[in-house]
Amino acid sequence: MSESKNLRSDQLAHQAGPGTEQGPGSEQGRPPRQMARMFPPGAGPSPDPAGSHHERRIRSFQPRRSRVTKGQRAALERLWPRWGFDVDGLHRIDLAELFGDPDLPVVLEIGFGMGEATARMAAADPGTGILAVDVHTPGQGNLLRLADEQGLTNVRVGNGDAIILLREMLAPDSLSGLRLYFPDPWPKARHHKRRLLQPEFLDLAAGPLRSGAEVHCATDWEDYAEQMLEVLSAHPDYENTQPDGGYAPRPAHRPLTRFEGQGLDKGHVVRDLVFRRR
Predict the structure, then answer these.
(1) φ and ψ at residue 34, rounded to 5 degrees
(2) Taking the alpha carbons of 136, 138, 142, 144 in that order, is the dihedral positive or negative?
(3) Are 155 and 106 in contact (CB under 8 A)?
(4) What's the domain range around 168?
């Protein structure tokens, strides 16, 4: 039934399937075997960067054990040491050092799927750094490949849990924006607690987001859009950029993906929300 399945094909990775309360990986909190032996330590994304027992909580994602192509693997092996990092929760990231430019504004994108839209946004706005975080290894490799082929120097790829990144690895007032495009809607009522955009998530994001930072969300799932609007509107740290307090037109910086276009042709409705950190 899901219109989201058509539109989210380029944005799936960070919340792909039933999550666990014990940690990413298998339902017992173990990293998938295929991922565990994919790269030597430090040479590519870790299967479980923060450790299966870093904490116990309901998660909104689970890594998918998809096959990595030769091109994706080659990009990871060659570029990960320069442009990739594991979200291990063990150290604070210096974004100026990571991007090599102390004056570059940086936006965090949570869940980028195969990275095509992220690469297009980076190419269109070279003056903004994109900190793209996901748990999907093929997507990480594909985004690095695209960045390399297109000569993009303003993309860095994080592997792991965005909650840990926001809470433990980003300095206060270090982000100029937050992008959350087509997150998993977890349509069953009993799974709504797994949806990423909750009041607690906004509390956490408010720390690294500097005043005036843009928070941009997009979804094609109507009841999730309504929840997003309700939760963002009720939070004291954020204000709607729309005078009527409703949804926003699609901003020019968010590209229309092929899958989204197919969905729109079928009558699906995509809703954008653009808020600002007070």
Answers:
(1) -60, -45
(2) positive
(3) no
(4) 4-43+57-277
